[in-house]
Amino acid sequence: MNTLTARPAAELDELVIAVRAAVARDAGRRDTASYVGDALRAHLPSPALLTADQLAGERGTYSSHRLHVEPDGSFSMVAIAWRPGAQTRVHDHVTWCVFGVLTGVEHEDLYTLSDDGTSLIEAGHNANLTGDISAFAPPGDIHRVRNIGDETAVSLHIYGTDLNRVGSSARRFYDLPVQS
Fold this sequence. Notes:
By secondary structure, the chain is an alpha+beta fold. It has a single domain (2-163), classed as Jelly Rolls. It has helices spanning 10-23, 29-42, 52-55, 163-166, and strands at 2-3, 62-69, 76-82, 91-93, 97-103, 106-113, 120-128, 133-136, 142-146, 153-159, 170-173, 178-179. Helix 1 (10-23) runs antiparallel to helix 2. One of its GO terms (molecular function) is oxidoreductase activity, acting on single donors with incorporation of molecular oxygen, incorporation of two atoms of oxygen. Belongs to the cysteine dioxygenase family. It comes from Actinomadura montaniterrae.
């Protein structure tokens, strides 16, 4: 994961202040995700946060760029450039997550775990368009993100943890059969 150091835009500073206030409300995971979602909706930055070099890459890949980690470890912000064909593994998260699409379309496939834990059940699909905001919290946040379009998509993700300390927002990867 790369760290963005060259262009700390004023719009990102405003977002950090708004997220800080949302997190300071000291609510439960789901409510905090909702408050942070409201903050991101009000302060969604432009895709100009990423340089041309950060947007470049091979088809089928994505790259993460750490924008901010709150000094007290309460949240981290990451911009992700999704090239055409890129996709994550099916996963869930260690904490709440909020994301906003800065440009393009970010497709999300949602799953639930079967009662016996041996398979995944398709729970839905979202096509998150430019400007869309999504907020969720564990448990029940099993998903896969992908770019099925022909253009690079960019999204900003805010996680309720210190990514410098934990390394990844993913708690678990699911390599299980999927039931329709």
